[in-house]
Amino acid sequence: MNRAIYPILSGALAQERQMQVFANNMANVNTAGFKQDDQAFTAVMARAQVPGAPLAQTAGFGQQIGARPAGPSERVFVAPYAAHTSFETGRVRLTGNPLDLAIEGSGFFEVKTPQGLRYTRNGMFSRNSQGQLVTNLGQPVMGTRGEIKIPQGVVSVSNNGVINVDDKPVATIKVMEFPDDKMPQKHPEGLMASENGKVAKNPQIQGGHIEESNVNSIGEMAKMIQGMRNYESSQKLMQTLDHMAEIAIQDVGRVS
User: Fold this and answer.
1) Straight-line distance from the first to the last Cα atom of the chain, in angstroms, rounded to the nearest whole number
2) Is-above-0.70 flag for pTM?
3) Which long-range contacts (CB under 8 A, 24 or more apart) does 69-73 make?
4) How far apart, in Å, are the Cα atoms of 195 and each of 106, 184, 190, 198?
5) Cα distances (angstroms) measured from residue 31 to each of 21, 69, 71, 198, 217
6) 187 or 48, greater pLDDT
7) Cβ pair 207, 157 in contact under 8 A
8) How many other CB atoms sit within 10 Å of the CB of residue 124?
């Protein structure tokens, strides 16, 4: 097989990985608080061939045929490097539900899961049968004094995150902030994990609103189309190289 196929194959596989990221962004375009991902790649140089001693005279003819030529390789491969998450704020939409919350600016809500504390921008909360404030997956939302319990009554949330029931404060939403260079990493179920957070001093929260995904659906669709075309180009180039090898085997060596 023509070894030139391998760098092209690495590019095709990179495009396939990028398409998976684009598809995941598109699938979550309507997921509250979702943050868009972009796949980064890195160039990988083929390992240089170290010049060795000449073949011993006793080496057989087959060994001489199979020996790789000495000298550096010129092949360059591409490989997935890391997924970058964009933490730009999504559009804030009015819902009218007092327990739907949206954070203005930076910060994350803290929730309690069986795996430990996790963080989210999805503020679609509700009150369960035990009176706890929970996420749409039933995970308790944390306040400045632990888990939040809301008694029966008329609920409202102030701009600084204080939950009031019948105009009486019962708890305060806990908002966590992270350094720009140590933002939380994505984990399953749309949550994020980090150990570098600190409690926000002056959080700004909008009650009765949710933050929508920051995915630009039109932009992601254009990226998917471009990615598919790049993948098809790589595929056609590999087919061309394979056809060239077939011609070399069947026609070039034929005795006329």
Assistant:
1) 25
2) yes
3) 72/48, 73/45, 73/46, 73/47, 73/48, 73/49
4) 17, 8, 17, 9
5) 15, 55, 53, 26, 12
6) 187
7) yes
8) 18
